[in-house]
Amino acid sequence: MLRWPVDNLGHTVLTYQGKTKGFSLPADLSESIRTISCQEGVTVFTVLLAALETLLYRLTEQTDLIIGTIVSNRSRSEFEGSIGYFANNLILRTHLSGHLTFRELLQQCHEVTADAFAHQDLPFEKLLEELSSDPEVSAVPLLQIVFVLHDHVAEDDLQLPGLRLKKLPVQRGAASRHLHIHMMNTSGPLSGSLEYSTEFFDANTIDLIVNHFKTVLKSVATNPQQKLAALPVLSKAERDELIQTWNNTLLDVSAHKDVRASNGLKHRQNGPEAAPQNEIERFIASIWQEILEIEHVGVDHSFFDLGGRSIHIIQVHSRLQKFLKRDVPVIDLFRYPTIRLLSQHLSTEQSEQSALRQNHDRADLRRTLREQRMRARSRR
User: Fold this and answer.
1) What do you get for the CA distance between the two ends of the chain, in Å?
2) Which domain, by its residues, includes 110?
3) Which of 3, 40, 59, 238 could disulfide-link to 234, CB 3.0 to 4.6 Å?
């Protein structure tokens, strides 16, 4: 099972609700991908697949990845003129490590894909029957992520006598997988769509995944000899935001020195394993446990020491805003990296906002009373 950093967990009954995110690659990047495929003796599908697996490896740190793809399964000449659905699911399983170069991964993906296509006549349902005795396989969907490249897609609208036809994007509102990535290989730039389950992912996370996928492709197009562990995933804008904006050591934090001092005392008394004490602390702890997939969280543990990354921050931020029903600056999650600090900050901010609302209410009341007195005097 892919240990994917999803936004929402704990669904007992899936409704398969989903959305689709469209995207396209720049023309120069598309040509670079085609050039790499020619130079390395692999298909465009293999280059895109290897880039996707690189991204998944960097996001999950899993070295054993399974991605599905779909074939038309019309390899026999007698099927070519037949009408019907012959498509079959194929499993592409690769083994990765940070020491692999992208070029080495390309060759592995090429071999895995060739082997899978050589056995495409084996029905996927038959494979599931054989694997059903394995509890690890039967307990979760085998194909959580599916990647398909459509070659030779017609770019022009279909022309029929007396009719004018136009292609329109369709939002099915459903998703049978966690992620289903379709890409189109035309004579122009590569484009695609990402169909995702809204029961697992928020739109912000999908935007991040698409942007990170593009960044990986740009990196390997520049130098396919890079090791997977060294390939950049964040764009330059994201790196600048992390290093400069969110890591601004010149920020005035003097207003929070008492909070930090008191927290330091409690940390020495209770240690980082101190359990959450209030509703906000318990909620923050629960989403950390779900997103980071850890069992125990202390209120003084640092989110980043526990393995938190930028993509996890986005998920925590989304869940936190839903819980509090108000805006929370994402930078606060970096300024207050422990549950205790973040909870104290949010509680203080909430109290200040409540006091401000009370002041506004009192001011409104005084204004209303003053206006009533003035109207009463005018009647006299």
Assistant:
1) 81
2) 18-74+87-153+172-242
3) 238
Strand partners, 227: 101
What is the rounded CA–CA span in Å between residue 202 and residue 21? 11
- Cα–Cα distance for residue pair 312/316, rounded to 1 Å: 6
Give the orientation angle of helix 310-324 with respect to helix 279-292, to 10 degrees: 140
DSSP label of 17: B
Domain endpoint, select from 227, 242, 257: 242
224 near 36, Cβ under 8 Å?
yes
Question: Against a cut of 0.85, is the pTM above it?
Answer: no
Give how many domains the chain has, as a whole number: 2
DSSP reduced 3-state for 183? strand
Length of the chain: 380
Cβ–Cβ < 8 Å for 116, 92: yes
Q: How far is CA 123 from CA 118, 132, 163, 186, in A?
A: 13, 14, 40, 29
Taking only the tens place, the pLDDT of each residue in 251-273 is 554 544 443 334 343 333 344 56
232 and 283 share one domain? no
CA atoms within 13 A on the CB side of 355: 6
